[in-house]
């Protein structure tokens, strides 16, 4: 049996994509090892696309909690890496498997781990690369790109607008997304709406408002889902179809969620709306291709139920200006 590295990062799509630089560093450091990622089962496709993961071990817990257990088969892992959090619950979960080595941040609750100190005010990509570098493993926080999927896009050249987010605090109002959609269509852009499981009602709201010039959603139902200039994909697309849609899009507009990280991974111009969390912690790499809109202020609760006050300070005109002034977004 090949020696094995077990990596714990049982979080969401955006978390996985932010962890790709660290995963690729582990791949380079352990070329002969099987790298097993403990993560939610629905992330198997993007994990494989990273080129750094050999196998996914299904693992998840509500919210951002640490899984209660891991169904690890066979002998103990030769190396375990905690990319989930700063412990001690995630440390203890991996320690129960008795790995040959455990790479993790230091924590007073697990004094036997001599790792680097955790820093709260640090970008997510940088944090995990710094962890590995402390253990002598070089890592590049900018190593985020994914190869384009080998399937055609269902709407090549469209602007993709994704109004959903995991929490209400990071979810810009549907009416404002609809105003952005109307502005884009007036300027000749084709627009595609995407949503994950459970977000169909949100997409319907954006569609209903966007298709009325006055922005009023109280009238009769709007046109069909595909009217030639505006289209919606409900229920969550399979990863290859979603990836193709984003990789071949003119631009991507979304909140601070996994879709924003996926746009970065494919190098598609994007405009991302930040509220409770600063883009300095979760935002795109520096440069002009990816625009982060944010009004500085005290940090909010990224898991709150209501839209964050700083997110609400962003208006549709701000998003449209960012898109229309973007040097890499072509005019239709």
TrEMBL record:
<dbReference type="GO" id="GO:0005829">
    <property type="term" value="C:cytosol"/>
</dbReference>
<dbReference type="GO" id="GO:0008713">
    <property type="term" value="F:ADP-heptose-lipopolysaccharide heptosyltransferase activity"/>
</dbReference>
<protein>
    <recommendedName>
        <fullName>Glycosyltransferase family 9 protein</fullName>
    </recommendedName>
</protein>
<dbReference type="InterPro" id="IPR002201">
    <property type="entry name" value="Glyco_trans_9"/>
</dbReference>
<keyword id="KW-0808">Transferase</keyword>
<dbReference type="GO" id="GO:0009244">
    <property type="term" value="P:lipopolysaccharide core region biosynthetic process"/>
</dbReference>
<dbReference type="InterPro" id="IPR051199">
    <property type="entry name" value="LPS_LOS_Heptosyltrfase"/>
</dbReference>
<dbReference type="Pfam" id="PF01075">
    <property type="entry name" value="Glyco_transf_9"/>
</dbReference>
<keyword id="KW-0328">Glycosyltransferase</keyword>
């Amino acid at each position: 049996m090949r020696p094995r590295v077990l990596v714990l990062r049982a979080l969401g799509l955006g978390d996985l994509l932010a962890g790709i630089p660290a995963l690729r560093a582990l791949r380079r450091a352990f070329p002969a090892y099987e790298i097993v990622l403990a993560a939610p089962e629905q992330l198997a496709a993007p994990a494989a696309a990273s080129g750094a993961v050999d196998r996914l071990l299904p693992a998840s817990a509500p919210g951002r909690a640490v899984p209660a257990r891991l169904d690890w088969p066979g002998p103990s892992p030769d190396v375990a890496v905690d990319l989930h959090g700063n412990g001690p619950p995630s440390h203890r979960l991996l320690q129960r498997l008795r790995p040959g080595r455990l790479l993790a941040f230091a924590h007073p609750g697990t004094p036997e781990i001599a790792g680097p100190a955790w820093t709260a005010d640090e970008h997510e990509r940088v944090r995990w690369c710094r962890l590995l570098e402390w253990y002598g493993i070089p890592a590049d926080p900018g190593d985020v790109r994914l190869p384009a999927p080998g399937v055609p896009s269902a709407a090549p050249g469209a602007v993709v607008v994704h109004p959903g987010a995991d929490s209400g605090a990071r979810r810009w109002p549907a009416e404002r997304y609809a105003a952005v959609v109307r502005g884009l269509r007036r300027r000749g852009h084709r627009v595609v709406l995407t949503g994950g499981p459970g977000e169909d009602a949100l997409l319907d709201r954006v569609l209903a408002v966007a298709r009325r010039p006055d922005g009023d959603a109280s009238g009769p139902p709007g046109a069909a889902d595909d009217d030639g200039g505006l289209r919606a994909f409900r229920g969550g697309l399979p990863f290859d179809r979603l990836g193709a849609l984003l990789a071949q899009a003119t631009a991507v507009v979304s909140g601070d969620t996994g879709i924003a990280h996926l746009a970065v991974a494919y190098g598609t111009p994007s405009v991302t709306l930040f509220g409770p969390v600063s883009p300095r912690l979760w935002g795109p790499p520096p440069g002009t291709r990816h625009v982060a809109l944010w009004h500085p202020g005290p940090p909010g609760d990224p898991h709150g139920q209501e839209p964050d006050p700083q997110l609400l300070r962003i208006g549709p005109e701000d998003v449209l200006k960012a898109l229309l002034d973007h040097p890499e977004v072509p005019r239709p």
